[in-house]
Amino acid sequence: MQTLYEKYKQEIIPTLMREFAITNPMATPKLTKIVVNCGLGEALTDKKVIERMTQQLSIITGQRPSVTRAKRAISSFKLRAGDPIGLKVTLRGRRMYDFFTKFVSLALPRVRDFRGVPKSGFDGHGNYTIGLEEQTIFPELEYSLVDKTRGFEITFVTSAGDDERAGKLLALLGMPFEK
Known about the structure:
Elements: H1 4-20, E1 31-39, H2 48-61, E2 66-69, E3 84-91, H3 93-107, E4 128-132, E5 152-158, H4 163-173
Antiparallel strand pairs: 1-3, 1-5, 2-3, 4-5
Helix pairs in contact: 1-4
């Protein structure tokens, strides 16, 4: 069975070179990294939230997340600089392609009333971000581990300079955009 990276090398690069009139294969857009980010504001009151979500994100991504901390203090939120307020995982290489395949083929079809991901998630520089409302769409996560549904966002960072090329790359990789 052909992996997503092999498909990218053998089929997607020539397609992108033809479509955008690129002469050098190294200049074709590519997926450079996937960042999974989870904000946990409730970690200020319950310290166990970070541990539970760390375990869940480790199972989902196959990599241990790093803790993100507050940059400055905000007194109205009872937040001090340096308090843990989130988690993030940066995936590259084989893990990135494995996660992309799992996300597109297993997790997205489990979303209720799924009609495709919106095209409005591009940032103008060729990166695409999608927000998920719950972590339970990933099949490897057991319900006994989930104490509360929490949302997170996934950012697909590409080397494409614009949204058109990045959109075509992600569509060729298998991202199901809405019509």
